[in-house]
Specification:
The structure is a homodimer of 631-residue chains.
Chain A: H1 7-10, H2 13-25, H3 29-38, H4 44-48, H5 51-56, H6 58-65, H7 68-77, H8 89-92, H9 106-122, H10 127-135, H11 142-154, H12 164-174, H13 177-186, H14 190-199, H15 204-215, H16 219-229, H17 233-240, H18 247-257, H19 260-263, H20 272-287, H21 291-300, H22 304-313, H23 317-326, H24 331-347, H25 351-360, H26 365-374, H27 378-387, H28 392-447, H29 454-468, H30 474-479, H31 487-497, H32 507-523, H33 526-538, H34 542-566, H35 570-573, H36 586-598, H37 607-610
Helix pairs in contact in A: 2-3, 6-9, 7-10, 9-10, 10-11, 10-12, 11-12, 13-14, 14-15, 16-17, 17-18, 18-20, 20-21, 21-22, 22-23, 24-25, 25-26, 26-27, 26-28, 27-28, 28-29, 28-32, 28-33, 28-34, 29-36, 32-34, 33-34
Amino acid sequence: QMPRGNLETIHPRALVLSAVRRNLDELRFLEAMTAMRRHRINMNLIYDHNPDKFLTNVQLFVQQINNVSHINLFLTDLQEEDVTCTMYTAAYNRSPVTEDSEQTNKVDTVCDALRKALLQEDENKYILCILTSYVKKSTPELEEALLLVRSLRDNPNKNAVISPADALKYLLFLVDVNEMFDVALGTYDFDLVLMVAEKSQKDPKEYIPFLNSLRRLEGSYQHYTIDKYLKRYSRALQNISKCPDHFDECLTLISDHHLYREALPLFTLGSDKYKEIAKLYGKYLIEKKKPEEAGLVYVKAEEWQLALDAFKSCSNWRQAFCMAAKLKYNRENEVDLGQKLANQLRNNKKYMDAAIVLEEYANDTEEAIVCLIEGCHWEEALRRMYKHTRMDFIETNLKPAMVENYESLLESLETMRVDFDKYRKRLKVVREEKERERLEFQESGGINDADADLFSDASSATGESIQSSKSSSSQSSAYSRSTGRTSRNRRKAEQKKWKLKEGSPYEDFALMAALSKIITAVDIMRDEVRGLVKVMIQFNSDKEASKLQETFGGFLSLIDTSIPSIWMDDSEEGEESVVLGPHATANTIAQAVQRGQNLTTKEKLDPIIKNAPSLHKDIKWKLSMLEGAKS
Amino acid sequence: QMPRGNLETIHPRALVLSAVRRNLDELRFLEAMTAMRRHRINMNLIYDHNPDKFLTNVQLFVQQINNVSHINLFLTDLQEEDVTCTMYTAAYNRSPVTEDSEQTNKVDTVCDALRKALLQEDENKYILCILTSYVKKSTPELEEALLLVRSLRDNPNKNAVISPADALKYLLFLVDVNEMFDVALGTYDFDLVLMVAEKSQKDPKEYIPFLNSLRRLEGSYQHYTIDKYLKRYSRALQNISKCPDHFDECLTLISDHHLYREALPLFTLGSDKYKEIAKLYGKYLIEKKKPEEAGLVYVKAEEWQLALDAFKSCSNWRQAFCMAAKLKYNRENEVDLGQKLANQLRNNKKYMDAAIVLEEYANDTEEAIVCLIEGCHWEEALRRMYKHTRMDFIETNLKPAMVENYESLLESLETMRVDFDKYRKRLKVVREEKERERLEFQESGGINDADADLFSDASSATGESIQSSKSSSSQSSAYSRSTGRTSRNRRKAEQKKWKLKEGSPYEDFALMAALSKIITAVDIMRDEVRGLVKVMIQFNSDKEASKLQETFGGFLSLIDTSIPSIWMDDSEEGEESVVLGPHATANTIAQAVQRGQNLTTKEKLDPIIKNAPSLHKDIKWKLSMLEGAKS
């Protein structure tokens, strides 16, 4: 019984296909293939019809077909496409391949399976098919093919149907001769090279001297030279590493092609050569602006001074002092290094680290305390003061810094609060304007005639949706302006386009981005605020501490309550759920969909626009003693 | 001209209203009020009709009405509701108040404005109205009203229309006499109390002795006793703090009502009393499990030992050693404290801090190094080894720990990877099942008749959406199971209900939550992996380092690519955008909406379900030297 329904679209071919399918199902490969060849049906169907069945019965296939050129025809026709889902989809009606299925390569699978069957059947007879199966693979296995030809030549078989020369000829018909020349050269077998070269248009005056010059070189060095000629640098490295006398060339190869990582395991750890390569690698990493990694490699090279410089330049002070110890730095040098590193760390705002360096290496307790105060590490500063009985710093440095920090925190909170309110208000206005424009446009589209029948409503609504993405009203037209570029480019361009200037086309996104920035900035202040509030209480600035905690807490909860309205939390709108109900019409439904659609413009998918910044609510920053009126 | 349109719904009252509105517009308050009283129109309209206009012309209003009981009628009728948006909305058709407008209290505004006008007009005449305006406020100003009555009594006026006694009587008619008695008592004016008491049903045998006992107490202490009786503890505290002889009672009051924060500023900083209160406060904070805050307060109390204990119990070692310094701990005590704190810190996995304590206070360099290695702080451990020339730890401790850390990291990555793949696959299956069930249900609902006319399609689609949220198919029915509870309770209950067990109703959510947990766990490993990889390279375990980096990097990119499919990124679906087009029918649109609606069930709003965890992509963890095949 034919599957019904799509019959009329397939024309007579449907009948042929049906027969072919039946033949394939019943493993009558020969009949199937004959019909397929006659009716020019794509050969892939033999496999695609039922891949597993074909693979288990591949031997039978070979036996039935029993014809070199027909098997070659099948092999050369192979392509990755599954024809049951493309060309012959009408006859199969299969769903396209699920992406999850194992990503094996169809052509490779068939080639390998078929080759195995051919070898088992009759290697001599099917030699050309076997060669085809090598060449056809997604990464052609030319060397394998060539070696097969060589073995034919080396072990002449009396039953041979094809001469080695003919086999080579066939191979060179499938593959460019120059490529084959290189493959032959890559086997380091000069006979093979000559065999290929002879079949080519190459001038013997050219390649003979070249081959002779190679022939003169010894073992690994010869292989290295060939590999280098073929630009197979990894193999070249393997080979040259076996030539102790050519170590200079080895180093050149490593540097020229950045083979440091491959080179190191080829030499004994700790040997001079190993260290020399590591040193080269370090230099390369420094050039690539990876000083920390360079430092680690210099350690392997036991180049302590270079390692120290590398670690110093990336402010890895711990490793730098390890290196200093290796170099047996004296006190003076250590103090000097300590001062330099402490300055660097301080400039990078790593006050805690700078303080350790100052105290433990630069021998400067006072500066360490000053540095900790500068970094607002109040408790650590106090600890050091008490440890070195330098509590005088409390009055001279800590308290003034505390007041300064308090004032600057309050001020920046104030500034951000003003901006936050401003942006929020403006965002509301911009959104209302957009909504108004949208509605106005919608009304002008003729949808406002509530008495029109539903059919015409539905069609006008849908027609309009197409328009709305293309035309009218300044803002909405800007959305589609950049179509055609790649999505990445477009996003980049748009990010630049978002301007806070009033009336700019992406003002709402610019506002959201600005709000997001403020929220993140406030959110990360939790630890700083807590630290400051604690020290302020300790030194009896309770009132100010209270004010700071209140201001900050107020801002945080304002942020918390504002987020849903800024990022349009669905739960806040609750409109969608009303859409479908007994009173819904095609019209209201279409409008609702359109509303939804407005929310999925590409810009809305930008992470800043799509998601509110996540807050670190788990950080406990509040002191309960400063909360509310009562303790 | 009458506004047209809604005329028929207002009945004759519309005419009256129209006249009233005209009168109000033309500031003929008397005519307006007369009509309103006759036709029982809500008095609020006088204000609500045009609030600003009323407030500017309130003096004129008083002059025109010129009648105590009518003004009282207006005052007592006042309510927060805006009658132009409720009762008389038909005549006004105003949009309800925008939430953004300043949240001033209407009743309070009118009371204050009217009182001002009345006082200006004729205080004597309108005394009762003025009293009403005090009582009517959202927080009745009873004390003000009572003081007004007292001033009437104290300064008898010959023109007085109302005797002080009558005024009081009127007041007690408006307010419960017992409440008024307390208010009177709160003025500390015994005459006033007596005046009120006499008008009450109270037994003089009861209140006279009570008042007499109070009368015998001196100044602040008397006031304190009254405040305490009235449960005005803040005022009581203010008053008792002025009685140095009753400090014990003050402390009791503070403890009983936790008034520590209010109490401290009432005493001189650093005085014995201040310290005593701070000490009490510290004790209270300890009880409330706030040891760190208790420590800060004990510092204020200069109770160094108590502060030390408090800081110790919350592992704030920096402050603890400051306190130890204050207490002039000897070496032995310091070592002891150091060991205890180091153990605590180590148990809390604060290895860096523990190492500092061990080295600087417990005098135990070896243990500090061991501790740093335990915490995988490789570079800091190395630094200390070099500093104290104890490089022997590299072989004995660091390298074995490094290998162990490497193995355990790889293992946990492996475990998480297996779970991740399992959950992901299962999630796909569960979702497909759900979708299939939904489609089956939809088909059985009679929507599959594609030839039915659009109107009936639309209605059947909408009807079905109501059903689908209530009935059928195991999973979807579970969604509505918990209706009726509060949203917070429900979410809590559901979180518990999410079970990973196959086939449990919220299995998909449980899977998402589990995936989210794994993602977060992997994401925070960046620093640990980088640290380990660095030390492994340094000690020549390049191969293992490579493997770790590759495994981890592979997992991270798998996570990155999986997130859109787990959290259903809209951009991945791209279906919505096809919904409205020339081929859309009411039917397809309705289905699309329903699809959208399925996505907004309450469970989907749970943060774990709604948003993918945010990754710390900004952390640079990868060493380029271990990347890819080439360096």
